Amino acid sequence: MNQPLLFETPRSDQITPIHGIYIHIPFCRHICPFCSFAVIKNDPSRQTLYLDLLKREFELLKQSFEFDFSQVESIYLGGGTPSVLKLSVLKSLVKWLRSRFLKAASCEFSLEVNPEDVTDKRMDNYYQLGINRISLGLQSFSKSSLKILERKQAKKNFFSGLERMHQAGFKNINLDFLIGYPSQSYKSFLEDMNHFTGMRPEHLSLYILNIEPRTKAFKRPDWQEWQNKNEPLIQRMYLKAVDALEKSGLKQYEVSNFSRAGFESKQNLCNWNGKNYLGMGMGAHSYTGDQRWGNHKRWVDYKNAVNNNLLPREFTEKINASKKRDEKLMIGLRLNKGIDLDKWLKENKAEPTAGFYRFMENLIKNAMAEKKGNYFALTPTGMLLADEIAATLASSCKG
């Protein structure tokens, strides 16, 4: 019989400050073809059991770590589809989260919601529970696009849903906008763009469809073929979206995220600024400075681990100085403000080669990057290749 992980991983003597809490809710009415997250078909009878598993996972974590939750800035309920939870289950979950992690009145409490779940009763209840930020999974307004993406919502739900949220009291709403999927035309993209900017959200997340292994889209070669063939179109749509969103008052602060002043996602900033965050539930990831781990994505594996008093980890990773250095560079270049490369080089005792500076100069020459005071930042064109650029710069340094 396996020993519990708490004996395999000695308890840390250091107190670990946590800035972000992520809770993964795996239940979905329908699993979208592009979804690579830990999801299962919704079964109301499993919801209370899942809540119990979350609580027990937390108790197991506390046996291996000494946490400080006084600095929590964000609690985020993602999925999956958190809005399919029965109100009684959600109330129990929120009550538990607030008692354990909510220490500051300024804490951002986010909930992902599907348009078809937006009703007066639900919005009023969400607001009364203390949830203060809604992330609405729209993706597109086009009927033909929604059919391809296997999204069930009706267009009328978008506008009436937004009004219901405002009436309930929500003043911080994110909209998800997806581009780069089969048969999407530039015309339909522009129509979507006009709708999204016209709704005047406080925050918008712009995603280019990423086809991941083990998704239904991955098993359809025509999806990847369409993307490969239409790469110039996808780039054109992304750059147009950045321009249109900026003109509408939504400032880009990260490759895929835009907001009005003061409405940047605290959960996003926690992740991108390298702060400690704790994830619980199926497929959730955690980061605590020099450690990263991810939970089992399959229901049976997650449930069995917790029931056997084992932390439900699918992988663990010790982050050495070299990897931390490279990740800081990658994260910095994804942010609109960029990164202070001189400071990064000095802090990490990295020795740049001649190729390092040549590559930087070529990026600036080709309008893919620019200098902003002490910061080196990518332009929207460069952000399309942010990870590749970061990898090239990192490999051009010794140490």
Task: Offer a concise description of the structure.
The protein is of the alpha/beta class and 399 residues long. It has helices at 5-8, 44-62, 87-101, 120-128, 143-148, 155-168, 186-198, 221-229, 231-247, 266-272, 299-307, 321-334, 341-347, 354-365, 380-383, 386-395, and strands at residues 15-17, 20-25, 27-28, 40-41, 66-68, 74-79, 108-113, 133-139, 173-179, 203-208, 251-254, 257-259, 277-280, 285-287, 291-295, 313-318, 351-352, 369-372, 375-378, 397-398.
Give the topology, please.
Blueprint: H1 5-8, E1 15-17, E2 20-25, E3 27-28, E4 40-41, H2 44-62, E5 66-68, E6 74-79, H3 87-101, E7 108-113, H4 120-128, E8 133-139, H5 143-148, H6 155-168, E9 173-179, H7 186-198, E10 203-208, H8 221-229, H9 231-247, E11 251-254, E12 257-259, H10 266-272, E13 277-280, E14 285-287, E15 291-295, H11 299-307, E16 313-318, H12 321-334, H13 341-347, E17 351-352, H14 354-365, E18 369-372, E19 375-378, H15 380-383, H16 386-395, E20 397-398
